[in-house]
């Protein structure tokens, strides 16, 4: 069965999600509130893209020369009974994890078959799980099916960045959208929107129904939407 997928974002009033350049106290308070709201979903797995996961991993690079022979492209699950899973969308295998934990969750790397053998050997050496979801590009439908089948994932929360969130929405896999709108305007043109998809990859608009709107301490507004068919 497909997991229930929630896309949880925070953004400025004008729809920008990257927080660099925001004042430190504002950024911290926004991040704390974002995480507090996320916990209300009681998810068993959370998923981010490579850039976000590199910031969490705090690693510069991984060691080379660990693979003394080709490594088979088969899924590897070092822990099938974790309380929660941190799912890292990392097609080419670049995130340098220092351990198999990310913010208290067991790490699962989502890779393509184009990943180097040394990276697979490295993940095995630190007991990080990994799965394959495509030869050269990630198939998100495959990802959530594998997570449900192999790890029993029932509620998956997508926490960005903008390209991962946009890709999940574009693939029609998101059941609920959660957006924390923060009281600032960030007009920097180089900053992506909360949901980003390559122009030639976008399929069609995603129409939603408002479930709730709650004003938060500090002036933010938490909006939750679902697909119309799931309303009520």
Which key phrases capture this entry?
232 residues, alpha/beta, Dihydrofolate Reductase, subunit A, 10-stranded mixed sheet, globular
| Secondary-structure element pattern, one letter each | EHEHEEEHEHEHEEE
Helix amount = 10-25%
Major sheet = 10 strands, mixed
Mean pLDDT: 93
How many domain units?
Answer: 2
Task: Kindly describe this structure.
The structure is a single chain. The protein has 2 domains: 1-44 and 154-232, Dihydrofolate Reductase, subunit A (3-Layer(aba) Sandwich); 45-153, no CATH class. With 232 residues, it is of the alpha/beta class. Strands 1, 2, 3, 4, 5, 6, 7, 8, 9 and 10 form a 10-stranded mixed β-sheet that branches. A hairpin with a 2-residue loop joins β4 (101-102) and β5 (105-111). It is globular and about 55 Å long. The longest helix is centred in the first third of the chain and has 16 residues, at 24-39. The protein is built from 5 helices and 10 strands, in the order βαβαβββαβαβαβββ. The two termini are 21 Å apart. The mean pLDDT is 93.
């Amino acid at each position: 069965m497909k997991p229930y997928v929630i896309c949880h974002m925070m953004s400025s009033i004008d729809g920008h999600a990257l927080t660099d350049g925001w004042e430190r106290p504002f950024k911290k308070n926004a991040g704390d509130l974002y995480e507090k709201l996320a916990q209300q979903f009681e998810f068993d797995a959370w998923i981010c893209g490579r850039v976000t996961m590199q910031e969490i991993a705090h690693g510069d690079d991984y060691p080379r020369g660990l693979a003394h022979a080709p490594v088979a492209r088969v899924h590897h699950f070092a822990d099938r009974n974790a309380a929660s899973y941190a799912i890292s969308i990392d097609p080419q295998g670049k995130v340098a994890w220092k351990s198999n934990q990310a913010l208290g969750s067991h790490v699962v790397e989502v890779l393509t078959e184009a990943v180097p053998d040394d990276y697979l050997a490295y993940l095995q050496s630190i007991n990080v799980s990994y799965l394959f979801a495509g030869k050269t590009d990630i198939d998100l439908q495959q990802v959530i099916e594998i997570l449900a089948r192999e790890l029993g994932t029932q509620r998956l929360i997508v926490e960005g960045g903008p390209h991962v969130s946009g890709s999940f929405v574009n693939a029609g896999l998101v059941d609920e959208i959660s957006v924390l709108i923060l009281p600032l305007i960030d007009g920097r043109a180089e900053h992506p929107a909360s949901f980003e998809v390559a122009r030639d990859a976008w399929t069609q608009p995603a129409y939603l129904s408002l479930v709730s709107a709650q004003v938060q301490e500090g002036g933010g507004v938490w909006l939750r939407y679902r697909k119309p068919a799931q309303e009520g």
